[in-house]
Design goal:
Immunoglobulin-like, 5-stranded mixed beta sheet, phosphoprotein, cadherin binding, cleavage on pair of basic residues, cell adhesion, transmembrane
Length: about 725
């Protein structure tokens, strides 16, 4: 209730309300100032409200007093029960745990005000799950209440927990939750065989390593605590069998270690022990965690294939043994009670069977072809034996036949040796050790002997020293050797074996003379090194060669420059064409000179191919306006030249016509007439070279040269 001191009760004061919940949760009587709640309140939703009130003059609407603030607090009542927010719970505890073993702690929450009364004070209790578990009423901790709870008896427990407020008093509100508790396994039980004797029946034809039976010991524990290991107790027949553990079923699998034979032994008895792999020391007092059972195995008789007397047969035969020679035999027997005859035959699926045959009844093996050890030194094939009474029962054995060698081939030097000897070698010096090989299969104790051939023993430069251990040494016999006189020496060596018949061969060794230093280290063995100065290193020789090459280059350049200067003196005009004049310096060797040029290019190819008379194309004679009559006294020479021309025209092997015309008679009709001195009637001094000036610019240099010689004549005295 709100009241102002200015309110005289005459209705001149009006009360107003504002703030949290004003008009929705709370309302005020404007005349009396009474505050009322217009709906129910929940402390857990909003524990208090802050409001503001004011007294206002009804007429002037002005506040009579300052606005005042006040708080309405909601008082709590017990209207909320305790709740397990994390429930339902799952917990576990090892079996055989002692009383009071911790299991789990639960917690309930009450939304009421814990500071006001007992509305939020919770007490825990067990409604279901006794007498196995207990709970602390204040903390909610669950513990075991009974000792030695066995998982194998009961594994799962469901416990119902209650939480009640008001301290558990009458009228308090309560909430419940469920706790599922599982007993975890511990190894508290040893394995036990369900029976003391196990009987097994095994066929004698069972293969080694195959499983012949299973036994099982029972362990009520779980997981690794139930893992069992089986072992055979040493005793009768235990060495023929072994036992392993199947990881999935924990069964003992009995396997065969050795083959069984009904005719040898029909029954076996041994003991098997089953024990836990993982033991718990807390339960050692219970007793040994293992159990023992007896296993009896009866061997069943089976119709078996024949059995060979040996697992492998090895035989020997000499090469070139006559066809049909017996080299050995195989034997197989039927060991069953009703013994049956055995038949033999070669397994035709393998190679090499055509070289041998086998007697089907006796099992003897004979050659079917001539054998060659150098082609095949060993044959490996299979022989099958079958029972006459049951041909489907067969057994197989391998036969190895080694072909023995007959001494057919002579020994030879094992490798082509590259032997060298120093020029400064001394007598008795070993320059090479040699060995020999023989294509024949040498028997034990085979020996090779080495010696010089008779033709090399007269004047030996080298000798052969047999070391008597299938090796020999090549030794020098001279004080020195000269590469200039003889670079290579051929040494014939005779090698002989010790087999019968004795075989020998002569092997020629090549010994190269090399230049060495004082210690005998080879410096060079090539032919070029013979002509090199002694004592010069490779670097010095290279330097000398470079100097020689540089000098040659300088000489060539000097000659080229001299020739270039000489050409410059003859060249006075760039327009002159001087190639023909300059090349007159080189004269040919005449008709017999066939090496200075390739005369094959001048031959007529059709004459060579058809082997007919040549058809040389003679050059047309150039006729110039100015002609001089030929000399009258050259008739003999002209006849000689014509005769030679005719002989060479009809001879396909003669030099070309053009080449012959160049070095013989030039012909008539030339303006300059013949340049040869053969038909010249006058001396050089009587010659008139003025006509050279009329021949044009090509002969201008000749005209100037001969004009100068004519003008300068030291024999003329004026």
């Amino acid at each position: 209730k709100l009241h102002s001191d200015l309110d005289k009760g005459v209705g001149t004061v009006k009360y107003t309300l504002s703030g949290d919940g004003a008009g929705t949760v709370f309302t005020i009587d404007e005349t009396t100032g009474d505050i009322h709640a217009i709906r129910s309140l929940d402390r857990e939703e909003k524990p208090f409200y802050t409001l503001r009130a004011q007294a206002v003059d009804v007429d002037t609407k002005k506040p009579l007093e300052p606005e005042s603030e006040f708080i309405i607090k909601v008082q709590d009542i017990n209207d909320n029960e305790p709740k397990f927010l994390d429930g339902p719970y799952v917990a576990s505890v090892p079996e055989m745990s002692p009383v009071g073993a911790y299991v789990l702690q639960v917690k309930a929450t009450d939304a009421d005000d814990p500071t006001y009364g007992n509305s939020a004070r919770v007490v825990y209790s067990i409604l279901q799950g006794q007498p196995y578990f207990s709970i602390d009423p204040k903390t909610g901790v669950i513990r075991t209440a009974l000792p030695n709870m066995d998982r194998e008896v009961k594994e799962q427990y469901q416990v119902l927990i209650q939480a009640k407020d008001m301290g558990g008093q009458l009228g308090g509100l309560a909430g419940t939750t469920t706790v599922n508790i599982t007993l975890t396994d511990v190894n508290d039980n040893p394995p036990r065989f369900p029976k003391s004797i196990f009987h097994l029946k095994v066929p004698e034809s069972s293969h080694v390593g195959s499983a012949i039976g299973r036994i099982r010991a029972v362990d009520p524990d779980f997981g690794k605590n139930a893992a069992i290991e089986y072992n055979i107790v040493p005793g009768d027949g235990g060495n023929l069998f072994e036992i392993t553990t199947d990881e999935n079923t924990q069964e003992g699998v009995i396997k065969l270690k050795k083959p069984l034979d009904f005719e040898t032994k029909k029954a076996y008895t041994f003991k098997v022990e089953a024990s836990n792999l993982h033991l718990d020391h807390r339960f050692h007092s219970v007793g040994p965690f293992k159990d023992t059972a007896t296993v009896k195995i009866n061997v069943l008789d089976m119709d078996e294939p024949p059995v060979f007397s040996k697992p492998v047969y090895t035989m020997e035969v000499y090469e070139d043994t006559p066809v049909g020679t017996i080299i050995g035999a195989v034997t197989a027997q039927d060991l069953d009670a009703g013994s049956s005859s055995v038949r033999y035959f070669i397994d035709w699926k393998n190679d090499g069977n055509s070289y041998f045959t086998i007697d089907a009844t006796e099992g003897t093996i004979a050659t079917n072809e001539l054998l060659d050890r150098e082609s095949t030194a060993q044959y490996n094939f299979s022989i099958i034996a079958s029972k006459v009474s049951n041909p489907l029962l067969t057994s197989k054995v391998n036969v190895i036949i080694n072909v023995l060698d007959v001494n057919e081939f002579p020994p030879e030097i094992s490798v082509p040796y590259e032997t060298s000897v120093c020029e400064n070698a001394k007598p008795g010096q070993v320059i090479q050790t040699i060995t020999a090989v023989d294509k024949d299969l040498s028997p034990a104790g085979q020996r090779f002997s080495f010696r010089l051939s008779p033709e090399a023993s007269n004047k030996p430069n080298f000798t052969v020293h047999d070391y008597r251990n299938n090796t020999a040494g090549i030794e020098t016999r001279r004080h020195s050797y000269s590469r200039r006189q003889q670079e290579l020496h051929l040494l014939p060596v005779v090698i002989e074996d010790s087999s019968y018949p004795v075989q020998s061969s002569t092997n020629t060794m090549t010994i190269r003379v090399c230049r060495c230093d004082a210690d005998g280290t080879i410096l060079s063995c090539n032919v070029e090194a013979i002509f090199l100065p002694v004592g010069l290193s490779t670097g010095a020789l290279i330097a000398i060669l470079l100097c020689i090459v540089i000098l040659l280059v300088i000489v060539v350049l000097y000659v080229a420059l001299r020739r270039q200067k000489k050409k410059d003196t003859l060249m006075t005009s760039k327009e002159d064409i001087r190639d023909n004049v300059i090349h007159y310096d080189d004269e040919g060797g005449g008709e017999e000179d066939t090496q200075a040029f390739d005369i094959g290019a001048l031959r007529n190819p059709k004459v060579i191919e058809d082997n007919k008379i040549r058809r040389d194309i003679k050059p047309d004679t150039l006729r110039f306006p100015r002609q001089r009559p030929p000399a009258e006294d050259n008739t003999d020479i002209r006849d000689f030249i014509n005769q030679r021309l005719h002989e060479n025209d009809v001879d396909p092997a003669a030099p070309p016509y053009d080449s012959l015309a160049t070095y013989a008679y030039e012909g008539n009709g030339s303006v300059a007439e013949s340049l040869s001195s053969i038909d010249s009637l006058t001396t050089e001094a009587d010659q008139d070279y003025d006509y050279l000036s009329d021949w044009g610019p090509r002969f201008k240099i000749l005209a100037d040269m001969f004009g100068e010689e004519e003008s300068y004549n030291p024999d003329k005295v004026t």
